[in-house]
Design brief:
The chain has about 700 residues and is α/β, with parallel strands linked by helices. It has 25 helices and 25 strands. It is globular.
Length: about 700
Amino acid sequence: MLHRIGSIEDGDKESIVDQIINEFDLKYVDIEGEAYLGYPIYIDEIANRRICVDLALVTRIGIFIFNILLDAVTDYCQIQDEIYMKVKAKFEKQPFLVKKRELIFKFYTITYSVEKIKIQEDNLIGFSVKNIIDIIDEYKEDSVFSDTKYNNILSGIQEAYGINNRIERSDAENGTKAYYINQMNSLIEKYDGRQMEAILADTRGIQRIRGMAGSGKTIVLARKAVELHMAHKEWTIVVTYSTRSLKNQLVNLISKFYAAKNDGSDYDRTKIRVMQAWGSSNAIGVYYDICLKHGVSPWNFTEAKNKYGKNRAFSKVCEMALKEISIFSKMYDCILIDEAQDFDKNFMSLCLKILGDEQRLVYAYDELQKLNEETMPTPIEIFGQDISKDTPLTVCYRNQGPAIVTAHAIGMGLYRKNEGLLQIPGSADVWNAIGYSSDEPIQEGKSALLYRTEETSPVLLKVDSNEIIDFLSYNNFIDLRLSLLEMLKRDIKEEHLLPSDIMIIDMDGIESSQNRDILMNLLYADDDYEDEFMIHSAGTTSPEDFFRKNSIVYTSIFRAKGNETFMVYIVNAQKCINSLTPRSDRNALFTAITRSKGWVRVLGYGDEMRTLCEEFNEIRSNEYKLKFDKYPTKEEQNELILNNKDLDDSIMKTIGNTRNMIKKLRNEENITDARLIMELLGISTKEELLRSLSEEEEY
């Protein structure tokens, strides 16, 4: 059965293609294959024109490339030869498809002509769908392609090889982390069917791409931008996002994909514009660009934050722009939005307003970034209209199976011993959409067991599942830091990781900068330190500053979003236990775990961390499955929300201001923490303080 992917702008051609696909499926019922419509597209730089394949059939019994002629031509052979040479040149660039300077398979170019024209020798042409099926039958392979060969050919036609950075880790002895990373990098990448659907889908109207963290949304958007640019050189395409450190990743991906299709040349940066959503006077973003174009004074972040608070600032300035601009001019031809879960309807509506009548808007978001609620409102709620195309991405390529299941279980508080479940997605349908399976349908009030299969969590890291993620508890932060330092040195010296393979995420956002300084001082004080690596804070030189060549990045969870690497250390994980904002903090820990493409170590100290370790031990003993003794009913889910409601923004702002004042007092007046607590609580003796803490613990 053929998987139909893409579209053709010419309706007559698309109708013929549909007939060919249908007839193929009728004749070859059990044959697997993918049918690419209007793809691939090549650019003839000399003639300054594009060459488009109308239909590429990649099947287990052969590869057939079609061009469709609606009018008579004098030399269809020239068209066939041109397409053949372009496709062949692309295949030959893939080393895994060539042996002894020849392709390891044959492919055929076939012309379908509506008009009867003279048949030329050795050039395949058909004048009906039956003719086409007869040609396929004559030239098909005698035996079906093996899995490896078929998947490699798919990778070749998709031009997927090189999605991952193939940096060879030297001295990668068998059994080291570097060895296993090299193994992962040796795999031949290919896009799955849904990813290719998202890349090649018609952009007329609004397109939604959704999936869990690590399902390839950013890669898909970057590749889609390139395919749109190849098809429409005259368009201005904007790729926008929230987290500033994501810019370099997007630019690098777009550059890589375009260069692979165009012999190493760079894309036109006036036509594909990678812009942060807000922007500033120094770095124009989408909001700033819209305001300047329409004669409205844009707000900067500081002004908006002071007036509306950090969390509401961007939404409010977009809302004001929508009200102040009475008539919107078309500014761009297409907008691709990454991290759409970080925006509300005001920014999304603002984007739609400046796209003209075509409304070519593509937005991608994490399906389950907050475990207590749907990540995004419905398209009707956002835009007041439905979408043209919806593509869920169910396969998780970034996180290993044990890591993603642990992230979900910890985020929900599924295995909390006394308090029970903390939060759960509002709809049970979400689990299937993000790649979970269950032997029985999920029913409220009944037991449920959810698990991931190798189809939705491919085993890319060939190590024991219990090595992938671990939770480590310490007596205090001093012991934690010393242990972390030893693990980092071991990763560099013995496991032969590159510093950029490692990320440290501090769940203590307030003290993260100071904690990093202490860690560096400990590193410098170590007699064995040989200057092999540094530890830098993310965003110190610019908002886009994250990974550096010879340095390990130390970051808050906010800056970590949108980034990924092989080895992730999460410190101060105890912060999410007994927190004033339990749902938010567990969501943050969920996000931190999902930054890893390989291994995760979750570090904390004190009784809270020991409690968190107990939860993880339950996850491990349940073989990394989500086990619900009783799946909550709607009423119980509502009760969860009421009982575990986080403190609102105004209270958290007051707490933050108080923390800053206390920090200032500690630094300037040299007052002890105990004395400060006693003064704040109106307690006069240490005995009273101890008694109060003891009562709190019992409570």
